[in-house]
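Can't paste images in this forum, so I'm doing it all in text. The chain is below; anyone willing to post the predicted structure tokens underneath?
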Amino acid sequence: TGDPAHLKVAANHFQDALASFPNDVLFLVAEGAMLEWSGELDEARARYERALQVDPGHARANLRYGRVLQKVSDFDHAQEPLSKALRLSNSVIIIYRARMALGRNAERAATTEVAIEHYRAAIAVLPDWQVGYVALAHALHRTGARSQAAAILERGLSLTADDESFHGWWSYELGLTDLAEPTLEELRRRVSW
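Text version of the structure:
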């Protein structure tokens, strides 16, 4: 939740975990995600940088580092980690998010055709996530392809929450929701009583 008391408890748990395991990339990325979500972008950036010092080839750390760079308007430096996340990952979720972020970078650089390619690729990977359709429709509209933009937007708006179409929108900001259960299960497996 966004309750400040819960965030403080989570922050304390991360501090304890990182005191014991200072180079654990998953802990660093998870704490970074919590900090990013709570608006502490400089602190989040520091956690992702530290995670990438430990494992420069960690796709999720590269993705989140690139996204936090975008949030602080450092679009030029965001390009490399986002591209790296795309190259390194076979997770459709990471590929989708990297494509969407790279599309945003392309739009900022006024290379709308490149943005359109990224948005189309994102939709091809996760066709039930609505955000890709909205971004693609906006980019197409900018190129003057208004009827095509309208058709794409209509397709995106036809998705409902039952289709999990909104998952792509909110789950990034809530952190590692697609990773939390497998990570907890792995930690449970490692702990012996």
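DSSP finds eleven helices and no strands in the chain. The two ends are 30 Å apart (CA to CA).
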